[in-house]
Amino acid sequence: MADNARAKRLADLIREVVAKKLQRGIKDPRLGSHVTITDTRVTGDLREATVFYTVYGDDAQRAEAAAGLESAKGVLRSAVGAAAGVKFTPTLTFVADALPDTAKTIEDLLDKARAKDAQVREVSAGATFAGDADPYKKPEEDDDEDESDDASDGDETGGDAAK
Fold first, then answer.
1. Contact 89/80 with Cβ under 8 angstroms?
2. Helix or strand or coil: residue 84?
3. Which DSSP string do the residues of 92-131 spell out, in sequence order?
């Protein structure tokens, strides 16, 4: 078993080598500049590597890119083996990344939330409070009443003492 740091370094190397080879070394028209390598994961024994990719385009272009990657798998594995210098070159498995679909789903949900917020803002624009605007009793009102009672009591006591 290799350590996790070695597997991570090998995964990073595989991602870079595959991306460069797709950009410059593969002449397959199905693998044009619209294929992007997003992530690579290597098993703990360094025998298998999963390469995640996205394709800019519609479903037909995604299917063509998947077929192109499968046909170029041997060339890409040879390039990885030459660059890595490991005893056993990992087998490559290409998986379409679900990140763009997930991002689209999240954007759709956020758009729905914004629409609901706008609807609530429109409904509440002319609304008023059900009771008073401020239903809480203020402590200042209680203090004013107590002070006026104390002042009148003080006048009577002060007046009796002067007599």
1. yes
2. helix
3. EEEEE-SHHHHHHHHHHHHHHHHHHHHHHHHHTTT---SS
Q: What's the pLDDT tens digit per position in 3-12?
A: 788 889 999 9
Could you give the CA distance from residue 95 to residue 50 in angstroms, rounded to a whole number?
7
Phi, psi at 80, each rounded to 5°: -65, -40
Element (H, E) at 50: strand 48-55
User: Rounded to an integer, what distance in angstroms lies between the CA atom of residue 15 and that of residue 73?
Assistant: 13
Nearest CA to 22 out of 61, 79, 64 is that of 79
Q: What is the dihedral of CA 118, 123, 125, 128, to 10 degrees?
A: -140
pTM of the model: 0.63
Q: Dump pLDDT digits (tens) for 59-69.
A: 888 888 889 88
Q: Which two tokens mark 58?
A: 């519609």
State percent of the chain over pLDDT 90. Answer: 26
